[in-house]
Amino acid sequence: MNKVTPFLMFNDQLEAAIEFYTKTFPNSEVRKVARTGTDGPISSAEFVVGGQAFMGYNGGSYFSFSEGVSLYVDCANQDEVDEYWDKLVKAGATPTACGWIKDPFGLSWQIVPRRFTELISDKDPKKVKAVMEAMMKMVKLDVAALEKAYNEA
């Protein structure tokens, strides 16, 4: 285990979340689980999603996630953005804005094409502003539209 590992408190949906996350993202696995009783539900787990280790616990109905914490998914290109976005939507996620989407367990994800990060790292503040303004109007990020805003600035 890493020295510092995110610990997620689920509202009694830990097992379903782990199943979905490990199926959706490569380089994922379940390392350890603890169950309530011999055949009971998972109460806590250590798992990896996309190479990132997590601890999880079924904390009960008084625990919920907020947008103050989100998981950032670095996508190589638009196809990868579309792939993860579509998998999350198919599972019942709610798209919000600017590449953010809330999964059916209440956890927020940022599905971000690497090209966006490259464009907003430009030294020309006009180009960066144009890209940011374009992004602010999007729900799912669109690389072609971001590049168009960049090129037209």
From TrEMBL:
SUPFAM superfamilies: Glyoxalase/Bleomycin resistance protein/Dihydroxybiphenyl dioxygenase. GO terms for biological process: methylation. It comes from the Bacteria. Residues 3-112 form the PhnB-like domain. It holds the Pfam family 3-dmu-9_3-mt. Keywords: Methyltransferase, Transferase, Ubiquinone. InterPro entries: 3_dmu_93_MTrfase (IPR009725), Glyas_Bleomycin-R_OHBP_Dase (IPR029068), PhnB-like (IPR028973). The keyword Electron transport does not apply. The keyword Methyltransferase applies. GO terms for molecular function: methyltransferase activity. This is Putative 3-demethylubiquinone-9 3-methyltransferase (Glyoxalase superfamily). It comes from Permianibacter aggregans.
